[in-house]
Every structure is written in structure tokens, then in C-alpha cells.
Amino acid sequence: MNSLIFGPNGSGKGAQGSLVKSKYNLAHIESGAIFREHINKGTELGKKAKEYIDKGELVPDEITVPMVLETLKKQGEGWLLDGFPRNVAQARMLWDALKNEGLKLNYVIEVQLPRDTAKKRIMGRRLCVNEPNHPNNIYVEAIMPDGDKCRVCGGELKTRSDDQDEAAIDKRHDIYYDAQTGTLASAYFFKELADKEGFKYIELDGSGSIEEVREALQKQLD
Ligand code: AMP
Predict the structure, then answer these.
(1) Which of 15, 84, 194, 198 has an alpha carbon within 20 to 30 A of 220's alpha carbon?
(2) Domain-by-domain residue ranges, the chain?
(3) Can you tell me the mean pLDDT for 28-53?
(4) Are the C-beta atoms of 157 and 182 separated by less than 8 Å?
């Protein structure tokens, strides 16, 4: 079982990805996490990647593609790839590599959310000072704070500074929502192949609650 998951920042892709991952007991291969590991270890690759990551740009394909494909080859079967591909060139190289390695795709999941909603969701996140896992968001009906306090425990709420950095959010979303050569284009590359190549392309409406989206996803998984 090998799958890809797409979704803009703020779409709840992480929550839906963990459902797929635990249902099929998959290795979660996240390109962003691999970069962070390199940066923490101070490797050469990490140093190069950091220059781009700090600017909110994509790390060049010459660095990213071999790194991710190596990880996939090592894994063999049984992965959920998250954060890759992010552009059409990466999508093509991934597809060629899968064919060469004889690896099949089972599902490609796209969590859909309008850009303005995704941005609001990010900017609306509030962090409970007592417990970061208490979900609060001033723009999400299901997890609206209780006044200006945590809806779960009544604790004080804070914002995370990068959630309020509008320019950074816009930059990430420019890349994601680019349907010509960006991340959406790479998702559509797989959408076009799905029927012919025998994998399932699942489109999820990400505007519901995490539970609603999860239920919709469950129904489409075998
Ligand atoms: P993420 O945790 O997925 O948001 O990734 C963090 C950062 O790593 C991104 O903002 C990019 O700079 C870089 N990155 C992650 N995945 C890719 C990719 N597939 N191609 C290029 N850069 C990437």
C-alpha cells in the first residue's frame, strides 16, 4: 500500500494523513520532516536546504528529488508520502521512479479547501497555554474558543507568531494553489493518470470538521 496526500497548509491534511497511515500501518514519509532532520544533524544537505526553507521557498529539485526518492527506495512498500511532489517536475520524476522500481500507487488523496478559508484557519488558530492539543480556532465553528479562553479547560489562549505571518502564509499558498506548475498541478498530474494506471484519486471536501472529513475519507478507502 503506497499513497500520496495533497492539501494546503490549513486544510487538515495532517489529521487525515494520520488516519491513512494508521489504518494501513504505513511509514509516513514527509519531505519537510526529512529536511528538518538534516538541519538538526547539521549535514551539508541540511545547510543548503535551510537557506531556502528560511525564505519560505521550495528547496531546489536537484536537492529534494534524490533525497526523497532515496528514502522511498529504502522503504520499498508501505508508505504515505506527504509534502512531495510540490511541483510538476517533481511529480514526473516521482512517477518515473515508481515505474522503474516497480512500486505501485494505491491512493492519491487531495484535501480541497478554498484559499481564503485555508488562510483564515491558519490565522484563527489559538494555542492553549495549559495543553497545546486543546483545539481552538476563532474561525472554525466546531472548535470556537469560549470567549477568549480555551474551550476545553478555560486556559489562556495565545497565537503562534508564524500563524500570524500573512506574507509567509501567502507565499506557501502561492506555491500550493498554482495549478499550472505548482503543487495543485502536481496533484492533477496524478489525477489524470489514476484511471488508466489503476489507482484511486480521492477528492475530499476539507471544509467540514476533522471528523466529517475523516468519515468521508473512511468511506472511500477499501
Ligand atoms: P513542510 O513541513 O512540508 O511545510 O516543509 C517545510 C519546507 O521544506 C518547505 O517550506 C520547503 O522549503 C521545504 N520542502 C518540503 N518539501 C519540499 C518539496 N517537495 N520540494 C521542495 N521543497 C520542499
Answers:
(1) 84
(2) 2-125+166-220, 126-159
(3) 96
(4) no
